[in-house]
């Protein structure tokens, strides 16, 4: 475990108990007879905290892997088009779920979101996986294919919103696209956590190949890098981590962009050294943000996706300024 992993693991050890205790009702750590304290912790706050950890870890690791693969500090998992495709699948569930048997209805939204993510992964693999021009051509084609999928999914989602079956469904779609962990339970944890864990394992396997790619495409190929294998690993790893998160919490952006920049100064800057600490830092960021939105004294809870966008957009602007000055 490197220094960055130790730092963010220590921060996580502080944030997790605070997240469980904080909320509209503060639960004293030593207990004072707060009514239903155990029920609040076990059925509301703990599953929500676990889900925040899983989603944040997946987005952070995916961001680190993407920035390593594209060798671009502005890369974000949203570029792949997988998150927008997952969102499209989830929006489609508002039409399709009523047609499913009652036993499958609770699984309609997550299953269709995962189907959307899978379709995005398959689209990327079919388009970018056929290149014979080496890693460089593959990366360019991969980026363009991701942008095309993201644009297509965004347009179809807007079309679906336009034809929302009723005002209630329209409100639900818009709120869901903003991303949130409100009212999530162990049901969502059971869906997302295993998929995120699988995606993290795949990204760790890709770490050494990403390191080789930092030496340049020709040097990496001379070291035995297989561009197609690396592409498959990335598509699978990012698809599982990002798709699982979107399936249970909606779109939560900017985590994959912000986190690697926080972690990189604490490491040797190789992609393989970034993946684990970025997962820990992403878990810290999403957990802290979710705790803050939960305790804000607002009539309606601020959506987590909006809160992180309010942080991420200025951070993105700061990165652009640094790049213009040649500092990033």
Give a concise summary:
The chain contains twelve helices and no strands. It has 328 residues and is mainly alpha-helical.
Notable traits:
328 residues, mainly alpha, 0% strand, globular
Write the SSE topology:
Elements: H1 3-21, H2 37-70, H3 82-96, H4 108-128, H5 134-162, H6 167-177, H7 186-213, H8 217-222, H9 227-249, H10 255-263, H11 271-295, H12 304-324
Helix pairs in contact: 1-2, 1-11, 2-7, 2-9, 2-10, 2-11, 3-4, 3-5, 3-9, 4-5, 4-9, 7-9, 7-11, 10-11
Strand count, sense and barrel status of the largest sheet are: none
Beta fraction of the residues? under 5%
Q: Tell me the total number of β-strands.
A: 0
| Mean pLDDT over the residues | 85
> Order of SSEs, N→C?
HHHHHHHHHHHH
The Rg value, from CA coordinates, equals 20 Å
**Global geometry:** globular
Helix amount: over 70%
Class by helix and strand content?
A: mainly alpha
Q: What is the end-to-end distance? A: 26 Å
Total DSSP helices: 12
Q: Which residue ranges are poorly predicted, with pLDDT under 50 across at least 5 consecutive positions?
A: none
């Amino acid at each position: 475990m490197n220094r960055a992993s130790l730092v963010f693991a220590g921060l996580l050890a502080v944030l997790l108990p605070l997240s469980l205790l904080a909320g509209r009702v503060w639960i004293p750590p030593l207990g004072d007879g707060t009514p239903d304290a155990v029920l609040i912790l076990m059925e509301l706050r703990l599953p929500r905290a676990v889900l925040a950890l899983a989603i944040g870890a997946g987005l952070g690791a995916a961001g680190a892997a993407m920035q390593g693969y594209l060798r671009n500090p502005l890369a974000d998992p949203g570029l792949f088009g997988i998150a927008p495709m997952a969102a499209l699948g989830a929006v489609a569930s508002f039409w399709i779920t009523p047609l499913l048997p009652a036993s499958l209805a609770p699984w309609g939204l997550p299953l269709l979101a995962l189907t959307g993510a899978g379709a995005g992964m398959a689209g990327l693999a079919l388009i970018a996986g056929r290149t014979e021009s080496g890693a460089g051509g593959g990366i360019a084609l991969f980026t363009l294919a991701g942008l095309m999928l993201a644009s297509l999914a965004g347009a179809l989602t807007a079309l679906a919103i336009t034809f929302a079956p009723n005002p209630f469904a329209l409100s639900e779609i818009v709120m869901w696209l903003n991303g949130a962990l409100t009212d999530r339970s162990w049901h969502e944890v059971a869906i997302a956590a295993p998929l995120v864990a699988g995606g993290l394992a795949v990204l760790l396997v890709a770490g050494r190949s990403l390191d080789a790619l930092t030496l340049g495409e020709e040097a990496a190929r001379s070291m035995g890098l297989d561009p197609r294998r690396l592409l498959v690993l990335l598509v699978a790893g990012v698809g599982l981590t990002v798709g699982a998160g979107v399936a249970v919490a909606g779109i939560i952006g900017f985590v994959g962009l912000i986190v690697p920049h926080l972690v990189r100064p604490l490491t040797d800057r190789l992609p393989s050294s970034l993946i684990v600490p970025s997962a820990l830092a992403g878990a810290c960021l999403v957990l802290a943000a979710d705790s803050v939105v939960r305790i804000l004294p607002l009539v309606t809870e601020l959506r987590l996706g909006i809160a992180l966008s309010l942080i991420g957009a200025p951070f993105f602007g700061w990165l652009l300024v640094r790049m213009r000055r040649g500092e990033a």
